[in-house]
C-alpha cells in the first residue's frame, strides 16, 4: 500500500474512511479544531452532523449503531465537550453498543497542568468504556484507530474513547492503514465447548416445560434466522427482554412476549413454573429477574453467552454455552429433537387472556374519555407498514411503546435499557433515521425526557431528517409519579411538570406538528404524520395519572407480578 | 464465608492499567489489602498480585471482570494455601538500643532477620515472611523501640508446576495459527 504524508487530523478522518464510516456526529471546539479543519476537505465523503449538544451527538451515534450494526462515531472537543459525552458512553457500555468517541485534548506538554478545557477524559471514562486510549504522538493514530474499531465492534460490542492531543493532530505522518484483527490479550469470542452443547441438548430434549429468553445477543450476533430455526425445531415458547425486542417478529407463533418489570404476565409467571430456562444472549438484569432468590429456582438453566463474565454473575446456571450465538445456535439446533409443547403453550395463552382482560383491552381500546399511550401505539401499528423503527426515551411511554409496538424486522427497537437515560429518545431517533433512511423512524418520548434533549430539533431542521416525533404528554414525570402513587402514598414530590407549547416549539424549528387532546382527532393526526417523509411532531395529551401494568414491584418475585393497582383491589 | 484471596493478573504494560483494575474493586466496595505490580518473567507483561478479603463468589466475579478487560491477558484467584507467598518488611531501630542489651540480637536470631545497615543513629533490619511473622517481629521489636517500620505488598507464585500464563499464550498462538 502506498503511503502519503498527511497531518494527524487528516489521518483520523482517513482512518474513519478506511473503516467505511459515512456518518459522524459531533460538535467542534478548541482542542479538536484541527480535525474539524481536516473534515472541511471531506465534505461529501464523510457526512458530519452538527448537533446542538455533545450528548445529542453520542445518542445519535448510538441510534445509528443500533439500527445499522456498525460502530457509531462521534467527535467532541476536550473538557466540557468530552464530559458531555459521558452519559451516552455509560449508556452504550451497559447496552453493548459499538461506539467510537473521538475527543480532542490539550497539547501534550499541557497535560496535567489544569490548562484551559483540560479534563482527564481517559480517567473519567475508564469505568464506562470497553477500552480507551490517549494519543499523544501522531504516528500512533492509524494503529490506535484500527484497534478502536476492532475492539468496539468485536465480541460483546462496546464504546471506545480515543482522546487525541492537539499537537498529535497537528503533527505529520506517512499514513498507512491496516485493519486490526487480533490483540494478544483480548479474546472477543470464547471457544465453543462441545460437551457443554451436548449437555444443553440433553436438558432441552428432556424438558417438559421449557422457555427461551431472548436477549440482544441475538441481534448483536446477527443470529435472528438461527434463533427462528432453533425455536421452530425445538417448539419452545420464547420471551424477549427489552433489548431483545425485534430479534424475532412480534407475531412469531412461539413469541410469548416481554420479560421483566413491565413485561407480560405469561413469561414472568411461567419463569417460576418452567422446568428449563434457556437464556440466549441476555444478562439477567434485575429488571428482568426481580428478586433473584425467588427466580426460577425450580428450573435447570442453560445460558448461551459471549461474555464469560456474565455467566453465573446474577443467576447460577447449570450449563453455560459460551460463544457467539450465531455459531452456537445452529450447533444446538442440530443436536435437539423436533418437539412441540401444546399444553404448555396453552398455559401462556391463558395468561395472555387474563392480561388482555385486565390490562391490554383498556390500554388499546379504552372506554374512558382520557387518551391512553397504548391506543397511540395501536394506531401506529394500524396506520404504518409495521416495518418502522421504534425509538423511545425512558419511562412509562417506553414500557407502553415497547409492549404494544409490533416488530416485524430486526434492529427496529432502539431504547435505553440498562442505563435508563432520559433524553435518549429524540437524538437516538435522529441517528437511527440516518442509519436506516429507508425506514419510518418513530421517536416516542414523554414530556419530561423530551425536554432533556429537545434542542436536537435543530438538527432535524438543519439536516431535514424525517423523524416522526411523538410526545406522550401527561404533564407528569409519569413513571416516578406511578411509583409515588404505589409506594410513596401518592406524595407527588416534584413530578408535576409544566411544558412549553410543543407545537409552537416545533414550528419555530420549521417542523410541522399537531397537538391532539381528543380521541376523535387522533387517527387523523397519525395519518397526517405518516402521509409524507418529512419530520412531524405529534403531541398527544394523555390521561395524567395512568399507570403501566403489569408490574413486578421492586424486590418482588417475577411470579408476584401485579395486573392492577393494589389500591383498586381494596376498593373493589 | 470471607477469607483472604490472592488475585494474580497478567496484563500488558500499558498506561492506566492499574487504574483500570483498581476501579473494579472500588465499584464493588471491596477494599484491597495489598497490591504489588511489577514486570513478570515475560518482557512487556506486568503481573499484579492483589490480596483481598472476600467470599469466593465475589472474588470469582471480580476476577471475571478483570479478565474481561482488553489489555488483561489472564487473571486468576487462589486461596493462601494454594500459593507460596512472601512480604518484605523493613525496621529501623536506634543503634544505641542495640548496644545497651542483647534483646535485639536475640530477636534477630529468633526471626532470622538480617541487618542491612548500621549508622551511629540507627540500624536497618529486614525480615521477609508472612504478615503474621513480620507483624509479630515488629511488635516484639517495638517493645524496645522502632523508629520506622514498613511492609511491602505480597508477591506470590502458585504451587502448580506450570505457569498458567504460558498455557494461555500457547492457546492464543494456536487459535491464531488456525
Draw up the topology in text.
The complex is a heterodimer of chains A (572) and B (178).
Chain A: E1 4-7, H1 8-18, E2 23-26, H2 33-39, E3 47-50, H3 54-68, E4 72-76, H4 80-83, H5 86-94, E5 99-105, H6 121-125, E6 131-135, H7 141-153, E7 159-165, H8 166-170, E8 172-175, H9 194-206, E9 210-214, H10 217-220, H11 224-234, E10 238-240, E11 255-258, H12 265-271, E12 276-280, H13 286-289, E13 300-305, E14 319-322, H14 325-335, H15 342-364, H16 373-383, E15 389-392, H17 396-404, E16 413-414, H18 425-435, E17 441-446, H19 447-450, H20 457-463, E18 468-473, H21 478-487, H22 502-508, E19 512-516, H23 519-529, E20 536-541, H24 566-571
Parallel strand pairs in A: 2-3, 2-4, 4-5, 5-7, 6-7, 9-10, 9-12, 10-11, 12-13, 13-14, 15-16, 15-17, 17-18, 18-20, 19-20
Antiparallel strand pairs in A: 1-8
Helix pairs in contact in A: 1-2, 1-7, 3-5, 3-18, 9-14, 11-14, 12-15, 15-16, 16-17, 16-23
Chain B: E1 3-12, H1 17-27, E2 32-39, E3 45-54, H2 56-68, E4 72-79, E5 83-94, H3 95-100, H4 103-111, E6 114-118, E7 122-129, H5 131-142, E8 148-151, E9 155-158, H6 164-177
Antiparallel strand pairs in B: 1-3, 1-4, 2-3, 5-7, 5-8, 5-9, 6-7
Amino acid at each position: 500500500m502506498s503511503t502519503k504524508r498527511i497531518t494527524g487530523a487528516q489521518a483520523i478522518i482517513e482512518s474513519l474512511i478506511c473503516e467505511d464510516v459515512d456518518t459522524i456526529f459531533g460538535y467542534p471546539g478548541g482542542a479538536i479544531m484541527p480535525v474539524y479543519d481536516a473534515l472541511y476537505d471531506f465534505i461529501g465523503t464523510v457526512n458530519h452532523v452538527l448537533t446542538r449538544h455533545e450528548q445529542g451527538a453520542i445518542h445519535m451515534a448510538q441510534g445509528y449503531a443500533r439500527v445499522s450494526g456498525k460502530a457509531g462515531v462521534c467527535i467532541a472537543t476536550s473538557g466540557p465537550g468530552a464530559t458531555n459525552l459521558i452519559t451516552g458512553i455509560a449508556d452504550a457500555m451497559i447496552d453493548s453498543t459499538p461506539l467510537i468517541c473521538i475527543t480532542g485534548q490539550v497539547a501534550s506538554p499541557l497535560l496535567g497542568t489544569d490548562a484551559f478545557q483540560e479534563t482527564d477524559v481517559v480517567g473519567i471514562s475508564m469505568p464506562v468504556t470497553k477500552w480507551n486510549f490517549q494519543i499523544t504522538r501522531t504516528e500512533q493514530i492509524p494503529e490506535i484507530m484500527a484497534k478502536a474499531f476492532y475492539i468496539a465492534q468485536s465480541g460483546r460490542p462496546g464504546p471506545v474513547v480515543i482522546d487525541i492531543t492537539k499537537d498529535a493532530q497537528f503533527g505529520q505522518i506517512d499514513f498507512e492503514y491496516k485493519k486490526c484483527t487480533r490483540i494478544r490479550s483480548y479474546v472477543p469470542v470464547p471457544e465453543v465447548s462441545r460437551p457443554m452443547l451436548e449437555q444443553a441438548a440433553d436438558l432441552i430434549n428432556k424438558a417438559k416445560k421449557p422457555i427461551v429468553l431472548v436477549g440482544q445477543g441475538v441481534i448483536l450476533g446477527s443470529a435472528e434466522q438461527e434463533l427462528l430455526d432453533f425455536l421452530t425445531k425445538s417448539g419452545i415458547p420464547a420471551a424477549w427482554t427489552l433489548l431483545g425486542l425485534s430479534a424475532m417478529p412480534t407475531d412469531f407463533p412461539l413469541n410469548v412476549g416481554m420479560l421483566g418489570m413491565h413485561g407480560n404476565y405469561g413469561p414472568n409467571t411461567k419463569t417460576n413454573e418452567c422446568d428449563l430456562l434457556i437464556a440466549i444472549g441476555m444478562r439477567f438484569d434485575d429488571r428482568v429477574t426481580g428478586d433473584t432468590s425467588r427466580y426460577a429456582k425450580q428450573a435447570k438453566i442453560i445460558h448461551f453467552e459471549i461474555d464469560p463474565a456474565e455467566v453465573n454473575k446474577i443467576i447460577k446456571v447449570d450449563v453455560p454455552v459460551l460463544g457467539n450465538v450465531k455459531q452456537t445456535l445452529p450447533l444446538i439446533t442440530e443436536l435437539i429433537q423436533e418437539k412441540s409443547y401444546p399444553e404448555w403453550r396453552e398455559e401462556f395463552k391463558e395468561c395472555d387472556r387474563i392480561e388482555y382482560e385486565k390490562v391490554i383491552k383498556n390500554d388499546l381500546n379504552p372506554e374512558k374519555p382520557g387518551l391512553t399511550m397504548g391506543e397511540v401505539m395501536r394506531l401506529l401499528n394500524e396506520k404504518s407498514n409495521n416495518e418502522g423503527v421504534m425509538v423511545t426515551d425512558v419511562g412509562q411511554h417506553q414500557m407502553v411503546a415497547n409492549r404494544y409496538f409490533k416488530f416485524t424486522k430486526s434492529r427496529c427497537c432502539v431504547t435505553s435499557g440498562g442505563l435508563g437515560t432520559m433524553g435518549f429518545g429524540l437524538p437516538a431517533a435522529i441517528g437511527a433515521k440516518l442509519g436506516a433512511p429507508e425506514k419510518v423512524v418513530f421517536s416516542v418520548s414523554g414530556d419530561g425526557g423530551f425536554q432533556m434533549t429537545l434542542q436536537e430539533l435543530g438538527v432535524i431542521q438543519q439536516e431535514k431528517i424525517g423523524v416522526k416525533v411523538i410526545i406522550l404528554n401527561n404533564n407528569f414525570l409519569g413513571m416516578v409519579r406511578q411509583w409515588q402513587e404505589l409506594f410513596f402514598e401518592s406524595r407527588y414530590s416534584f413530578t408535576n411538570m409544566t411544558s412549553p407549547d410543543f407545537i409552537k416549539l416545533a414550528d419555530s424549528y420549521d417542523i410541522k406538528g399537531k397537538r391532539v387532546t381528543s380521541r376523535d382527532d387522533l387517527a387523523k393526526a397519525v395519518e397526517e404524520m405518516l402521509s409524507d417523509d418529512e419530520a412531524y411532531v405529534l403531541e398527544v395529551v394523555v390521561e395524567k395519572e395512568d399507570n403501566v401494568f403489569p408490574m413486578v414491584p421492586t424486590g418482588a418475585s417475577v411470579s408476584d407480578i401485579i395486573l392492577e393497582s393494589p389500591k383498586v383491589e381494596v376498593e373493589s | 464465608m470471607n477469607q483472604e484471596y490472592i488475585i494474580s493478573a497478567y496484563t500488558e504494560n500499558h498506561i492506566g492499567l492499574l487504574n483500570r483494575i483498581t476501579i473494579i474493586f472500588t465499584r464493588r466496595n471491596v477494599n484491597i489489602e495489598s497490591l504489588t505490580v511489577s514486570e513478570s518473567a515475560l518482557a512487556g507483561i506486568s503481573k499484579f498480585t492483589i490480596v483481598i478479603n472476600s467470599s469466593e463468589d465475589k472474588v470469582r466475579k471480580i476476577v471475571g471482570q478483570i479478565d474481561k478487560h482488553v489489555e488483561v491477558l489472564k487473571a486468576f484467584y487462589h486461596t493462601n494455601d494454594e500459593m507460596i507467598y512472601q512480604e518484605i518488611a523493613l525496621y529501623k531501630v536506634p543503634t544505641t538500643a542495640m548496644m545497651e542489651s542483647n534483646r535485639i540480637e536475640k530477636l534477630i536470631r529468633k526471626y532470622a532477620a538480617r541487618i542491612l545497615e548500621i549508622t551511629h543513629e540507627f540500624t536497618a533490619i529486614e525480615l521477609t515472611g508472612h504478615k503474621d511473622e513480620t507483624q509479630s517481629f515488629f511488635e516484639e521489636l517495638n517493645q524496645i523501640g522502632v523508629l520506622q517500620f514498613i511492609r511491602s505488598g505480597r508477591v506470590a507464585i502458585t504451587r502448580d508446576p506450570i505457569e498458567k500464563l504460558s498455557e494461555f499464550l500457547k492457546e492464543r498462538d494456536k487459535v491464531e495459527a488456525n
